[in-house]
Amino acid sequence: METVGALRIFERSYISRGLQYKDMLGDGDSATYNKIVQRKPYGDECIPKKLECIGHVQKRVGSRLRKLKSANKGLKLADGKGLGGKGRLTDGKIDVLQNYYGLAVGENLDDVDQMAKSIKASLYHVASTDLNPQHHLCPNGKDSWCGYKRDEESYKHKNGIPECIVKKIKPIFDELSQPQLLQKCTHGMTQNVNECLNGLIWDRCPKTTYVEHETVALSTYLAVVKFNDGDISFLKIFEDLDIKPGSFTAQELSSGGKSSSGEAENETGEDIGILHEAWDYEDWLMGDNSEDIWVRH
Ligand SMILES: [Zn+2]
User: Where in this chain does the record put each Mutator-like transposase domain (predicted)?
Assistant: First the structure.
């Protein structure tokens, strides 16, 4: 369904809007992108480029490490202990590694080599102990994110990841710092905006209850209106419908305009844009209800 929907959006963009999408922001799944490349909606002149959502790339660190851990439950490493357990590769440490990876990508968008270096630095930084500090790749100076480099004397290490675990997980970091992958992250964007809109739609129309397409379409219209301008736009709709709202409604919607866009910002953690690709009711009727298509232009 996602592939069918994405193809339709790409194929109609030039005909209906005179617009060619240059890039497609997506997660790791390339099936939809490959179909678009095969179909060449704009001929050979403009082949859309695949961009990776940095949020999804970051999450790969956690999912790969957790997978490695569960696939090696009975494994004994060089020090006679397993991967998991206290002071080992705990869920907390996995989260820390994943967060450091995200920062390494986000802070070096204009330099892929530096991005890869920072990813490696984060692994050794997290593996460091008082007896074995490994901050050789961490940035120097008092503005460094590395506390050890900021003040070597007073820095106290927490539980570092043992060396045999570092050895075991390093291939994952090597793979996730390949320039081909990092190159696709230099735009610095995530799919959060799309996920935010997606959430607004299904808040109004929970998937747990079966509804007809008119209800989904209406929920989508309402979500788009709220996403773009906040609750205040409902006052304009009332006005167009010649409905005079009561004072409490008017007051709530007027103030809600501000709080609602704030809500969207908080959910996504970034400033949200305007939704350009409006819901196409006709497509919905035809069965094009793909909900997880992430496209930018
Ligand atoms: Zn460090």
Answer: 1-146
At 12-60, the pLDDT tens digits run 999 999 999 999 988 877 888 999 999 999 999 899 998 989 999 999 9
Ligand 1 centroid from CA 151, angstroms = 11
- pLDDT tens digits for 171-212? 999 999 999 999 999 999 888 888 889 899 999 998 888 999
Tell whether 44 and 141 lie within a shared domain.
no
pLDDT at 128 over 50: yes
What residues sit around ligand 1, an ion, with C-beta below 5 angstroms? 125, 135, 138, 146, 148
Domain coverage including residue 164: 54-183
CA 38 to chain centre: 26
Three-class secondary structure of residue 49 per DSSP: strand
Q: For residues 128 and 82, what is the distance between their CA atoms, to the nearest angstrom?
A: 19
62 lies in the same domain as 101: yes
- CA–centroid distance, 204 to ligand 1, in Å, is 46
Separation of 160 CA from ligand 1 center, angstroms?
Answer: 11
Place of tokens 């675990």: 165
